[in-house]
Design brief:
This protein is mainly beta. The protein has strands spanning 3-7, 10-13, 18-25, 32-39, 46-51, 58-60, 68-73, 78-83, 92-100, 110-111, 115-120.
């Protein structure tokens, strides 16, 4: 029902910042909780951050707390992931995800194609 497309990845040095964007279409954007996952080579896909439909509630994996910020602009049907103080361990393909309703109550996840973030040390 909803389609999401990520952008903003790239190659950066440790300590640098990147801002990822995810544009949604095909659904009522505010009805969807939005989130970001990442997958490094040889590893399972890992939850990174999520935000409620209104933007009032956010969740983060411990490893990115204080460095990453998830936000959304419902007027633009877009969710963002601001990544600061990047580390080599943050290197991964980052995927945008949409879930109808509350983040932890949803059964179906709608995935983007991913955008690559590479952090050199």
């Amino acid at each position: 029902q909803v389609q999401v497309v990520e952008s903003g990845g790239g190659l950066v040095q440790a300590g640098d910042s990147l801002r990822l964007s995810c544009a949604a279409s095909g659904g009522t954007f505010t009805s969807y909780s939005m989130g970001w996952f990442r997958q490094a080579p040889g590893k399972e896909r890992e939850f990174v951050a999520a935000i409620s439909g209104s933007g009032g509630t956010t969740y983060y994996v411990d490893s990115v707390k204080g460095r990453f910020t998830i936000s959304r602009d419902n007027a633009k049907n877009t969710v963002y992931l601001q990544m600061n103080s990047l580390e080599s361990e943050d290197t991964a393909n980052y995927y945008c995800a949409a879930r109808f309703g509350r983040w932890y109550n949803a059964r179906t996840t709608y995935w983007g194609q991913g955008t690559q973030v590479t952090v050199s040390s």
